[in-house]
Amino acid sequence: MINPNLLQLVVDASNDGIVIAEQEGSDNILIYANSAFERMTGYTCEEILYRDCRFLQNGQGDENARRQLREAIDNGRPARQIIRNFRKDGTAFWNELSIAPVFNEGDGRHYFIGIQKNVTEQVTARERIMQLEAELASARQEIVRLKTSPR
Ligand SMILES: Cc1cc2nc3c(=O)[nH]c(=O)nc-3n(C[C@H](O)[C@H](O)[C@H](O)COP(=O)(O)O)c2cc1C
Question: What is the pTM of this model?
């Protein structure tokens, strides 16, 4: 059995956010957040404990991502979604969120854990590639048009 202090060190050393939430009505309220979550969101633990993480969406969460998360939670299943979140200072970041149900034999209760990874660079790069591909396609079309148009 791993020493709980060692597990705590591991969780605190993580670069990804790690949170634990427990169900309260239709909410899953935070009962734990590691320091990476505090750094990523700009909120302190005191500010976010007992709140449902949806506040990070500032009311602008992608409908599809939210629905997938809600369905997974309602069915006690794991899920992974990339969703736009906002820090305390209002700046946006892309959060690759993984959630999974866990059962704690100690108190006989079900919890959800969440792992948050900041994937803003990857999402921005992908958007830029798509934009460049669209520009390239229209430049190619223009070349074809110029080649085939009568002089
Ligand atoms: C453990 C856990 C962690 C979560 N972390 C986040 C998060 O970091 N960002 C976010 O936008 N939603 C997060 N969610 C999802 C929201 O709390 C909420 O479940 C989701 O928006 C779907 O429910 P709703 O349609 O009622 O808002 C998390 C959910 C759970 C269970």
Answer: 0.89
